[in-house]
Amino acid sequence: MQSEQAQHVVQAASPGGRSGRWQQRVAQVLPPFALLSALVAAWELIVWRLALPAWLLPPPSRILTTLMNNLPVLGEHIAATLSVTAPGFGLALIGGFALGVLIDASPFLRRAVYPLLVTSQTIPIVAIAPLLVVGFGFGMLPKVLVVALVTFFPIVVNTADGLQAADRDQRRLLEAMGASYWQLLRLLRLPAALPSIFTGIKVAVTYSIIGAVLAEWIGASAGLGVYIARSLRAFRTDQVFVAALVTSLLTIGLFAFVTVLERWIISWRDES
Amino acid sequence: MVMLDVREISKTFRTPDGPVTVIDQLAIHAEAGEFVAIIGPSGSGKSTLFNIIAGLETPDAGAVLIDSVDVTGRRGQVAYMPQRDALLPWRSIIDNAVLATIVQRGDVAAARREARALLHDFGLAGWGDARPAMLSGGMRQRAALLRTVLWHRPIMLLDEPFGALDALTRAQLQQWLLGLWDRLDRTILLVTHDIDEALLLADRVYVLTPRPAQVALELTVDLPRPRSYSVVAEPAFAHLKLRLQQVLMMNEADPQGALLRQRG
Predict the structure, then answer these.
(1) Where is pLDDT greater, at B228 or A179?
(2) Which residues have CB under 8 Å from B100's CB, separation 6+?
(3) Which of B56, B90, B133 faces A176 most closely, judged by CB atoms?
(4) Residue ranges of chain A whose pLDDT lies below 50
């Protein structure tokens, strides 16, 4: 659901293209945009009509004003959250990719590691995160590790799967040329795996900011997670909504960035 | 002079339904500069034969000799073109053409220059920097042939190179391949289903039996060269075609062969 919406946003945001394609994009963006507007309007109306107190459910207009008023403070928290997200996701990207390549290379590793990987995803991160804080203190490390933990799995799996996706004839051709394992990997299997790897990255990136916010919520001095925790204690429900909105927008922005990067790198797919 | 000598090779695969002998004491050869075609029913082990010559598989018995040197199970000794063009979609035509040089750590810059110089000959002038997806089926096939030629091996294995093309494009490419072979002075081994194609192009034709593959007939095509497509209208051509067809039909009538052919 979330990724589908983001896809529309990306398509609408990318420049260029002929007028026909633009019309198509507008037609794609219009229905979700109209529905969203209607829902927001209904929300506003219901809040006013029932005269709900702001700590229970603030109207969208109030959330927007709060957002505008708190922008400088929010900026600092966003910066803190991103400074946790970036190294955490980077760690997941490098580690996940390396593990994917290793799993692909060794049937033994595949059998040994795969079940553990899947099991690791069934353990609730809310249980792990406090343990990490206890173990590694209140510095950056436990938060970076939480982000890495929630994002590395799709990267590992999609890398390992993608490396098996290379065309059989192309593989036989390179083997007939006498290609070594590394040549086969570099010339054929990695490029062929890129679409799958990017799918993994796109799934992972949607979890990354949420992971950072969760980690901050459990123990930090700055970041959107801290902002949410403080706002909850102060019954500032409007600020909680602002934080949710910002988290969502940041995630969509990251997703859009990865999608643009994907199109740029896997350019050969658009040429047929 | 014998360039390629395939000596009495046999190959049996283990399958869930028991062992299947795909090739049984098959012996073929090709002289230097000769054009040899191999015809056989589908599933008769032609691909396995090519895999063995290309070093992708090792035979259970027998040997493959190139220029009197035993190369059984060694890769990179012959240039090989698989059934589909197998062009890498992320590389340009030139980058695809020099792939063998890259893999074998040769002089890539020189190979690139050579590829550029040959583009015109291969009907690909102006397409060197295009990606394969931009090309038509016939052009892709020529690009794959360019890659095979730039492999720089005296022997080229072509596995049904024109199988997927429409009749007109196929006829044009056959004619073009004849001219190319004339200029190149390479030994070509061509697998095909098409009797006309085999007779039009080859000096000699092997007809294989259904599994397990053996030579059912070896036929010298004594039609004059240079040949053009009009050769199909000559009585000598019709006579050779009839003989090939008779042997192939006899194979088809073999019930055991028909059963084994199901496996493709």
Answers:
(1) A179
(2) A177, B76, B79, B106, B147, B150, B151, B152
(3) B56
(4) 1-16, 272
Contact yes or no for A187 and B88 at CB 8 A: yes
| Chain A CB within 8 Å of residue B90 CB | yes
Question: Which tokens belong to A219?
Answer: 């123990």
| Crossing angle (nearest 10°) for helices A140-162 and A71-105 | 40
Q: Are B200 and B206 in contact (CB under 8 A)?
A: no
Q: pLDDT at position A9, please?
A: 41
Q: Which of A173, A188, A269 sits opposite B80 (nearest CB)?
A: A173
Q: Rounded to whole angstroms, what are the CA distances from B125 to A168, B148, B183?
A: 29, 18, 19
Structural tokens at position B101:
């040089």
- Give the mean model confidence (pLDDT) for residues B183-205: 92
pLDDT at B183 (0 to 100): 87
Q: A140-162 vs A190-218: helix axis angle to the nearest 10?
A: 160
* Residue A269 token pair: 């797919």
Nearest-5° angle of CA A19, CA A22, CA A23? 90
Q: Decide if A177 and B75 are in contact by the 8 Å CB cutoff.
A: yes
Using CA coordinates, name the residue in chain B closest to A168.
B86
Residue B78 to residues A68, A118, B33, B60: CA-CA distances in angstroms? 70, 45, 14, 20
Please state the rounded mean pLDDT for residues B5-29: 93
Sign of CA dihedral B102, B188, B28, B26: positive
CA distances for B245 relative to B132, B174, B252, B257, angstroms: 37, 21, 10, 16
What does pTM read for this prediction?
0.82
- Answer whether B104 touches A (CB < 8 Å): yes
